């Protein structure tokens, strides 16, 4: 059951495009990757939640760029519209509603100590991940044909190969909905 | 084809039942008692349907339409039965619990049903993305159940801890899935198994890393060393029936998917066996150390849950991916579930308003006032400690013999040592119930029928499960 033929297609060496284009795509990849990581670092390190949220938007947009490099058209658009657009504006509105003042924020004097300690602890895993990534085959980033990543193609994948997980997402979304009503809703009486 | 529908029926019944209970909760007439009864009925119907299914070998349900994502076997059937039974007993003991602790709304029961849906799916899914979705359905429902009492600070702390750490574990799982997909170009267990058989496990670093992250997530959810620190706080903060539900149903679902994932191929199991060996030893002894130090009964049971995870890990070390049936794991889970649910059902009606009886000392002299309840609790504790003729003894017996026959004698011996150490904290409660004078009359306990009935049914189960292998 190989549901994702693009992997095979991506593995093919680029023959049509010139070396310059490939260089350019590589540069784009590294730029987006670095921006994504910087945004995520900012999310963790910024003191004020609003700065953190803005920094997170940077990450989401950079990820959209990475999806575009993989010819995933639909996911690219959804990432920009739904995640970087709709969801992040909701989060920012909520943070603004909370009206957080600098004095409301906790004092984190030991923050750097925890960060450095944590970094040392996860270092072996990080080194192992570098080793893993280096075993990956060379992949050229070129536009995959056959309207790959379009609405129709993604829809066919979802309904032909991924029916069960796709349908069960419905319950996955329902549970937090009920949970949010229960935990944050008005404190009702017992019936 | 019709058989496929029947195999899926328990999942469909519980899922639909959850949605119906959720919609019905909006109506005034749908009181919490009605909600509890209908939830128990839904779970009971699903249980009977699951029981009536006869399965031989691995059956991919609707393999054309669902792309072999859901696979049913006798192991998933047994795990499903344990989960559904845990759900029924949790719901019934909740009724008594919520008479004393009045923070229930009818949504509580629909969340239990959704959690069971996720767990049932987890036992069947032979595909990593589906497993992740099922795991999240289960976890999200359980997060809310843990924090259901919003007026309790400990409960709020518990839900926050569990939510943050659980999300962390979920992120690890997704990362692992991505790496495994990168290595094998599939997330289906069967295809991963074929890939390992063809290319070897140790030759693919991407696969090692991927399965490492998946194991981290599963070990976290199963509360194994070194990811056990959250357990005592979360179990302590959750309402008593929810604690029982987490300790039994959640653990069953996790171990079902854990075993299914490990046996995709010999290479996978062999690659992790050494690490699982040490993790199981540390889990047992660290759990014992934590349990010995506890004064609170709920925290002691949480820590003893860590120890039982250790025993189950022994069983995972000992399985072989050829003709895997999972019977040892399923049997131990059933035995452990019966005893744990029993003790939590008893605590649901004995702990009183706002769970005021918490520590060992609060139950002093219970045997004089409520001899039957004390006897039932003693039987559950003896079963957890592994004294014959209870189910716990048979469960441990099977695990230890399977470890010996797989050539892990050291592990078997350490399992027995850990079991002897665990007597210390199990017997402590029995001593405080039987050999101390009553300091209070336990007269504030509201009369209820359901929870005591549950308790005594479970006493019967403890003996029935232990006799089951002798009869069949």
Helix-strand blueprint:
The complex is a heterodimer of chains A (191) and B (472).
Chain A: H1 6-11, H2 19-45, H3 49-69, H4 73-98, H5 111-134, H6 151-160, H7 163-184
Chain B: H1 2-24, H2 32-52, E1 59-60, E2 71-72, H3 74-100, H4 107-124, H5 128-146, H6 153-184, H7 189-199, H8 205-222, H9 229-237, H10 240-262, H11 266-292, H12 297-318, H13 327-350, H14 366-369, H15 371-385, H16 391-405, H17 409-434, H18 450-471
Antiparallel strand pairs in B: 1-2
Helix pairs in contact in B: 1-2, 1-4, 2-3, 2-4, 3-4, 3-10, 3-13, 3-18, 4-5, 4-10, 5-6, 5-10, 6-8, 6-9, 8-10, 9-12, 10-12, 10-13, 11-12, 11-17, 12-13, 12-16, 12-17, 13-15, 13-16, 13-18, 15-17, 15-18, 16-17, 16-18
Please describe what this structure looks like:
The complex is a heterodimer of chains A (191) and B (472). Chain A is mainly α. Chain A has two domains: 6-147, NADH-ubiquinone/plastoquinone oxidoreductase chain 6, subunit NuoJ (Four Helix Bundle (Hemerythrin (Met), subunit A), Up-down Bundle), CATH 1.20.120.1200; 150-185. Chain A has seven helices and no strands. The longest helix of chain A is centred in the first third of the chain and has 27 residues, at 19-45. Chain A is globular, with a radius of gyration of 21 Å. The relative contact order of chain A is 0.11. Residues 1-15 of chain A have low confidence and may be disordered. The longest helix of chain B is centred in the middle third of the chain and has 32 residues, at 153-184. With 472 residues, chain B is mainly α. Chain B contains 18 helices and two strands. In chain B, helix 6 (153-184) crosses helix 9. Chain B has one domain. The radius of gyration of chain B is 21 Å and the shape is globular. The mean pLDDT of chain B is 89. Classes of the chains: A mainly alpha (191), B mainly alpha (472). The interface between A and B is large, with 34 and 53 residues.
């Amino acid at each position: 059951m190989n549901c994702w033929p693009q992997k095979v297609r991506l593995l093919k060496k680029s023959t049509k495009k010139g070396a310059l284009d490939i260089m350019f795509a590589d540069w784009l990849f590294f730029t987006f990757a670095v921006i994504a990581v910087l945004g995520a670092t900012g999310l963790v390190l910024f003191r004020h939640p609003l700065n953190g949220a803005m920094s997170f938007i940077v990450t989401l947009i950079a990820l959209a760029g990475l999806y575009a490099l993989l010819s995933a058209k639909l996911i690219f658009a959804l990432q920009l519209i739904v995640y970087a657009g709709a969801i992040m504006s909701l989060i920012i509105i909520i943070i603004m509603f909370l009206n957080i003042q600098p004095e409301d924020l906790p004092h984190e004097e030991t923050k750097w100590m925890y960060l450095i300690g944590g970094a040392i602890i996860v270092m072996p895993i990080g080194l192992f991940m570098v080793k893993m990534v280096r075993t990956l085959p060379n992949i050229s980033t070129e536009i995959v044909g056959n309207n790959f990543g379009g609405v129709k193609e993604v829809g066919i994948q979802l309904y032909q190969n991924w029916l069960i997980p796709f349908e069960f997402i419905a319950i996955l979304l329902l549970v937090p909905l009920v949970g949010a009503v229960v935990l944050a809703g008005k404190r009702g009486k017992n019936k | 084809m019709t058989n496929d529908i029947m195999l899926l029926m328990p999942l469909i019944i519980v899922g639909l039942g959850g949605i119906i209970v959720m919609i019905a909760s909006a109506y005034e007439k749908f009181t919490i008692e009605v909600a509890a009864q209908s939830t128990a009925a839904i779970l009971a119907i699903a249980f009977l349907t699951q029981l009536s299914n006869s399965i031989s070998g691995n059956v991919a349900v609707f393999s054309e339409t669902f792309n072999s994502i859901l696979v049913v076997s006798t192991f998933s059937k047994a795990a499903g039965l344990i989960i559904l039974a845990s759900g029924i007993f949790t719901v019934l003991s909740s009724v008594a619990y919520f008479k004393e602790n009045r923070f229930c709304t009818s949504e509580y029961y629909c969340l239990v049903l959704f959690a069971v849906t996720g767990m049932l799916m987890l036992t069947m899914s032979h595909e990593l993305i589906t497993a992740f979705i099922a795991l999240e359905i289960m976890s999200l429902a359980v997060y809310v159940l843990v924090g259901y009492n919003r007026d309790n600070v400990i409960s709020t702390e518990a839900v926050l801890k569990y939510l943050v750490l659980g999300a962390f574990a979920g992120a690890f799982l997704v990362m692992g899935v991505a790496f495994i997909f990168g290595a094998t170009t599939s997330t289906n267990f069967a295809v991963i198994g074929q890939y390992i058989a063809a290319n070897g496990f140790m030759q693919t670093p991407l696969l090692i890393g991927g399965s490492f992250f998946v194991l981290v997530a599963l070990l976290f959810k199963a509360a194994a060393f070194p990811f056990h620190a959250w357990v005592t706080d979360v179990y302590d903060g959750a309402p008593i029936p929810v604690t029982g539900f987490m300790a039994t149903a959640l653990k069953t679902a996790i171990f079902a998917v854990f075993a299914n994932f490990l046996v995709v191929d010999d290479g996978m199991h062999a690659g992790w066996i050494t690490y699982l060996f040490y993790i199981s030893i540390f889990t047992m002894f660290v759990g014992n150390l934590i349990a010995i130090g506890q004064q609170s009964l709920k925290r002691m049971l949480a820590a003893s849950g860590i120890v039982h995870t250790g025993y189950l890990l022994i069983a995972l070390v000992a399985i072989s991916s050829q003709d895997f049936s999972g019977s040892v794991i399923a049997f131990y889970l059933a035995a452990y579930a019966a005893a744990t649910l029993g003790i939590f059902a008893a605590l649901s009606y004995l702990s009183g308003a706002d769970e005021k009886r918490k520590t060992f000392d609060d139950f002093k002299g219970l045997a004089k006032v409520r001899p039957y309840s004390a006897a039932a609790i003693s039987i559950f504790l003896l079963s957890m400690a592994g004294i014959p003729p209870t189910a716990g003894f048979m469960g441990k017996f099977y695990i230890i013999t399977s470890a010996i026959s797989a050539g892990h004698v050291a592990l078997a011996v350490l399992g027995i040592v850990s079991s002897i150490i665990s007597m210390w904290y199990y017997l402590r409660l029995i001593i405080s119930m039987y050999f101390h004078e009553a300091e209070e009359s336990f007269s504030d306990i509201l009369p209820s029928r359901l929870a005591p009935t549950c308790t005594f049914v479970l006493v019967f189960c403890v003996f029935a499960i232990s006799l089951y292998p002798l009869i069949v």
